[in-house]
């Protein structure tokens, strides 16, 4: 009999991350919770500074001084990675079972190492392959991600590759050990539209062929609508709305989510200029005690002086708002999936 409640491959519970700076204690993450099921593609979306990349770094164990995980938990297949025993296991998981495509491939690749040396190092460290077998596997990986003449390319350096090719190399490195979970942090940043589409098609193909679970970090709602099954919207270090991609885009509950959808450019939109969300996110040195979006929200009230609890939505998602479903903006726009934000 199939398990009616399968264990998430990744679960983040009430995660808080702090950074001790000269200006004070920055609360980078403030109670982030979500889960990813096997074979599922989930997106973390939000504007710059919302905590998306910090979440990924926490999962990958890359929060170093002056940062620290102050509370919460990260579970891999039900087992904590933050206990003393879990931290030992996490060292073997990260890079092998859990891998990451970083935002800027040019700064992530060592300019003094050939592409082949990068791949061989990963394969020998995590898979225990000989140098010859690692080289052969590296050629296969470059071919798998669509790089022509892979054997010759193994001897080239990062500066000899275009931006799109470097991003493909990063993906090849990430899938080298056949991981179960891939975290992609803004994988199409600084790429032109055509190359963006190719990279996203590659991720979709790899997800299907390898059965990957993917956490995609992006601010592009169009990418999310075309690739992801679930989405979590982040603002000021917290998740303000979550659900299936279709639910969140077609029935946005939180004013911030509605604002993001409203500000997304569309080919069929004839307005002279894009409509933006006025104001700026609050400082995480001194985050507000109530709703973090209150100062920018067109429907805020005195009730928003208190922090709203996360509640279920009629569509099966969740939202942190005192007045969910209220049309916050006077000119609603259609969602990337073709529906309309309420």
TrEMBL record:
GO cellular component, one term: plasma membrane
Record's subcellular location: Cell inner membrane
InterPro entries associated with the record: AAA+_ATPase, ABC_Ni/Peptide_Import, ABC_transporter-like_ATP-bd, ABC_transporter-like_CS, Oligopep_ABC_C, P-loop_NTPase
Biased composition (Polar residues): 332-342
Keywords for the protein's UniProt record, in alphabetical order: ATP-binding, Cell membrane, Membrane, Nucleotide-binding, Transport
Statement: the UniProt record of this protein carries the keyword Cell membrane: yes
Membrane topology recorded in Swiss-Prot or TrEMBL: Peripheral membrane protein
The keyword Lipid metabolism is assigned to this record: no
PROSITE patterns: ABC_TRANSPORTER_1, ABC_TRANSPORTER_2
Region feature (Disordered): 303-342
Record domain ABC transporter: where: 10-261
Domain of life: Bacteria
Pfam families the UniProt entry points to: ABC_tran, oligo_HPY
GO molecular function annotations of the record: ATP binding; ATP hydrolysis activity
Main location: membrane
Example GO BP: peptide transport
Family to which the UniProt record says this protein belongs: Belongs to the ABC transporter superfamily.
Protein name: Peptide/nickel transport system ATP-binding protein
Biological source species: Celeribacter persicus
């Amino acid at each position: 009999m199939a398990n009616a409640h399968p264990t998430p491959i990744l679960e983040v519970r009430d995660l808080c991350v702090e950074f001790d700076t000269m200006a004070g204690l920055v609360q980078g993450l403030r109670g982030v919770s979500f889960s990813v099921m096997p074979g599922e593609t989930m997106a973390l979306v939000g504007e710059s500074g919302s905590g998306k990349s910090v979440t990924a770094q926490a999962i990958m164990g890359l929060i170093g001084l002056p940062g620290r995980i102050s509370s919460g938990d990260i579970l891999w297949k039900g087992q904590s990675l933050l206990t003393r025993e879990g931290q030992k296991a996490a060292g073997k998981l990260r890079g092998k079972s859990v891998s990451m495509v970083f935002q800027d491939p040019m700064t992530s690749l060592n300019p003094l190492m050939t592409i082949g040396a990068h791949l061989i190092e990963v394969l020998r460290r995590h898979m225990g392959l000989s140098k010859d077998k690692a080289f052969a596997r590296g050629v296969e990986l470059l071919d798998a991600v669509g790089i022509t003449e892979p054997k010759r390319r193994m001897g080239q350096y990062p500066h000899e590759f275009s931006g799109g090719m470097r991003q493909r190399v990063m993906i090849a490195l990430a899938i080298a050990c056949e991981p179960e979970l891939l975290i992609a942090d803004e994988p199409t940043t600084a790429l032109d539209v055509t190359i963006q589409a190719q990279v996203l098609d590659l991720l979709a193909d790899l997800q299907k062929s390898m059965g990957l679970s993917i956490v995609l970090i992006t601010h592009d709602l169009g990418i999310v609508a075309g690739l992801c099954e679930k989405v979590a919207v982040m603002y000021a270090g917290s998740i303000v709305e979550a659900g299936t991609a279709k639910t969140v885009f077609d029935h946005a509950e939180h004013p911030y989510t509605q604002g993001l959808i409203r500000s997304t450019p569309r080919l069929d939109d004839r307005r002279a200029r894009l409509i933006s969300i006025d104001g700026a996110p609050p400082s995480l040195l001194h985050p507000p005690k109530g709703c973090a979006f209150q100062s920018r929200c067109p429907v805020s009230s005195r009730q928003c002086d208190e922090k709203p609890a996360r509640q279920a939505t009629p569509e099966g998602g969740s939202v942190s708002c005192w007045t969910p479903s209220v049309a916050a903006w006077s000119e609603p726009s259609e969602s990337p999936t073709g529906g309309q934000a309420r």
